[in-house]
Amino acid sequence: MTSNPIWIGDTRLQLQPELRVVESADSITTTFSYAGPYELCKSSKPYRGQTVAGYAGRVISTDLLRKPGGIGLLTVTVVAPADESSLSSTPVETKWALRWMEARKPLASHPRYTAKNVGYGDPAFSQAKSSDLWQDANNESACKDITVAMVMEDCAKGTLDEAKAKLSTGTDDDQVSLVKDYLSKLARSTEGYKSFTPVFTKVTTYPTSPSGTGAGFISGPPAGCPLLGSVPNSSKFKWFKDADDVTPTGRSGSYERTEVWIGADDIDSDLYRKSANP
C-alpha cells in the first residue's frame, strides 16, 4: 500500500475532460478518469479508502480498462458524506397508499335500519327507522320514551310468542315491517355485517430528521392526498390520525415519516381531542 494517504495521481497520465458528480440525500459521488499506458494506470491506481487531492471524500472503487494498443483507462469513484448543513427539510420523496380496513358491526347498526333503508334492499319500511318512537296501540304514552330500536332488542331477547305479542301492538306498518325484517335476519344467524373504512398511509422521505405532529387525535382529511377521490363520499367520514412515526431509513442522514389516517362514521370527541394540541 502506498505510504502517501493522499492520492495525487501521476503526471504521465492524462486527466479526461468528463467529470460526473451525483448528489443524493446522504452522499456526494464524484467519478473521473485518467488515460495513459495500461501498466502505468495499473501501478498508479489509488487504493480503496484513500483520499484524493482536489476531491472531498474517499475512494470507494476503481475501474481499470485495457484498450487496444496498450492504452489504459483508469476510472476512479470518490464518495463524500453530504454536508448536512446544506440540506433542507424539503421531502425527497412522498408516497401515498389507500387500503380498506374491515370491521364487524352489529346488525342493528346497519343503515337498513338506522337510515330509513336508503340504498339497501326492499324499501318495505322506508318510512321507518330504528330511532323513531314506537307507535303502541295499548299505551299511547309509551311512544314518548320507547324507540323502535328498543322494540327490536326486546323482541330479539324474548320468545317467539312474546315477540308476536309485542308486534301486535304496533300501529305503524312500516315500524312493524322493520322489526320483522330484523328478526328474520337474526333467525338466519345474521347477527352482524361487514363494514369497510378507508385507511390512508403517507410515507415521506427526508434528507434530515423531520418533526412529527403526534397521533391519537381527530383530524381533517389528509391534506394533499391524491387518492382522496378514490373514497366515495369522503367528506362524510370523520378522520382519525392513527400514526406519525419517524424512523431512519438505514442510509446516513435519511429518515422516513409514516403517517396514517383512518376514516370513521363517527369519533367520540369526549375521548379524543380534535387536534394535535392537548
Task: Walk me through this protein's architecture.
By secondary structure, the protein is of the alpha+beta class. It is built from five helices and eleven strands; from the N terminus they run βββαββββααααββββ. The chain has helices at residues 38-44, 111-114, 148-157, 160-168, 173-187; strands at 6-7, 14-23, 27-37, 51-52, 55-67, 71-81, 93-106, 192-206, 217-219, 238-248, 255-264. A six-stranded mixed β-sheet has the order 1-4-5-6-3-2. Strands 7-8-11-10-9 form a five-stranded antiparallel β-sheet, with no helix packed on it. Helix 3 (148-157) packs antiparallel against helix 4. The longest helix has 15 residues, at 173-187. The two termini are 62 Å apart. The mean pLDDT is 87.
Features of this protein?
single chain, 278 residues, alpha+beta, five-stranded antiparallel β-sheet, 5 helices, 11 strands, rod-shaped
Strand content: 35-45%
Distance between the termini: 62 Å
Largest sheet: 6 strands, mixed
The average pLDDT value, as a whole number, equals 87
**Cα radius of gyration in angstroms:** 35 Å
Query: How many helices does DSSP assign?
Result: 5
Shape descriptor reads rod-shaped
Count the strands?
A: 11
Order of helices and strands: EEEHEEEEHHHHEEEE
Give the structural class.
Answer: alpha+beta
| Largest sheet strand order | 1-4-5-6-3-2
In terms of quaternary structure, the protein is single chain
Low-confidence stretches: none
Task: Bin the helical content.
Answer: 10-25%
